[in-house]
Here is the input.
Amino acid sequence: MRFFPLLILLLSLQAFAQNQSFQNSAMRQLYNLANTENRLTLGGYGEINFNGFSGKANEIDVQRLVLLFAYKFDDRVQFVTEIEYEHVKEVYVEQAFVNYNINNNLNARAGLMLVPMGIINEYHEATTFNGVERPSLDGKIIPSTWREIGIGLAGKSNELSFRYQIYAMNGFVSFNEAYVLEGLNGLRSGRQKGAESVNSDINLSAKIEYYGLPNIRFGLAVYSGKTQTTDLENPATQVGLTMLGADYRYTKGRFSSRGQWAQTTLRDVAAYNAAGNTDLGSKMGGYYLEAAYNVLPLTNRQRIDMFVRFEDFDTHKETAGGVASNPAFHRKETTLGFSYHLSPGTVFKADYQHKNTAANENPIKQFNVGVGFFF
Amino acid sequence: MAAFAPVLMLGVSKKAEKEINKTFEVSQTRLAPVLSQDVTGIEQKRMFRVTSNENLLGYAYLGEAPSKTDTFEYLVVFDVDFAVKKTKVLVYKEDYGGEIGSKRWLKQFLNKTPDDRFAYRQNIAAISGATISVKSMTEAMNTLMISLASWRENGEPYKL
Here is the structure.
């Protein structure tokens, strides 16, 4: 959180000069001084990564650079946005919503929002997770960063120690003048990111999290609805889906651990695959488990978390309509490495990944190094 | 400058008043400023002495600290010896990080005194997903205790 008084002053002068009529410039200045404090928050996060492979060229990438802006209109109304540069040249709006704080326990929100499913999709700043790359499950099963345009409620009860979110949202596109979804990446290729997105059906997304026990936090999420299509006359261009997710995060002293399970059940897949000549699975899902230990004393400002993570997930857990289950879509991955937190907000990461599949052919062995920041 | 120093007090919300009364188990209390001016780490307008029928019950501090994209307001109630009797998040405007209002989590500050120090993940538990606000509240409480201790060392009496 950093406040830039000059910038805020300039922005406010511009905004209020247009909307307010002041008796004189002194009054305007007074108004600005009294009202500019803490109105605008600027922040950012990002990661610059190196992926080393054996048998093919390495890759070096400014994977993402995200600028966070939040503007407070008054005590209750706030606008939050994240502008993301991916691989230097692709620009996305990752979040852009208005939050209306009705009371301490209830907010209404509308705009482009993160779908609350799993851990990484909502908490994906490089300093908040271990591993240079996000868990693979949070790409193939939960297609992070998964965001959609919608409206809903979010809040918490500190008496009962739970947080809730419930949104009506747009969903994945399955047919946009062509069949979009396939077996390898599951729903990922159907992400619309809020860009001129196709809408034919409303989806529902909800998550509750419980934080009433010491050091641990649990999450349970559900996402349900139908995919979106441009061909409203042809039911074979749509599938129904229900995704369930469960996760935990544990932190005590130098030890931390997290785990996540997610499963998507799809309906009407046989007709979709036949019509589109594709191989979308009818059930996909899996889990990962991770444990980490900080080898530095807790009194140090810095932290080095050594970690190991196991992942097991399958985008062809079940198939329909004569599509054979592809064992290469059943991934089994191990990641071993460290996150060196140089300061709160900066991290240097290195790890080794062994990515195998149930087909057990040519596992990928990968070495990653990255630097990340969050302010 | 004017020759008099006006006593600036924060408007104490009904909610804060209710919490203070509840903490001391009385139906009505009177709040008055403790400090005659700002001291290091403590603004005059944020610190109150709490009395009931002329009896000193303790002190109350109304603080403000940053969350991810906003600020939140909290209350700390002390007994006459400045041991923490209650911490409560009064107003938390944004959604992210609101977990610090958890009664369970805030319990960690109970009965602590200006001699105690707080450090995130050492003697104060983390809350996954609310790291910014947890660190912020921990830091704020730590600063408050250090300020109270230094105020005491500088010879300022507690009981005015």
The interface with chain A takes residues 66, 68-71, 89, 91-95, 98-99, 101-105, 119, 121-122, 125-132, 135 of chain B (CB under 8 Å). Residues 1-8 of chain B have pLDDT under 50 and may be disordered. The first helix of chain B runs from residue 14 to 24. The radius of gyration of chain B is 16 Å.
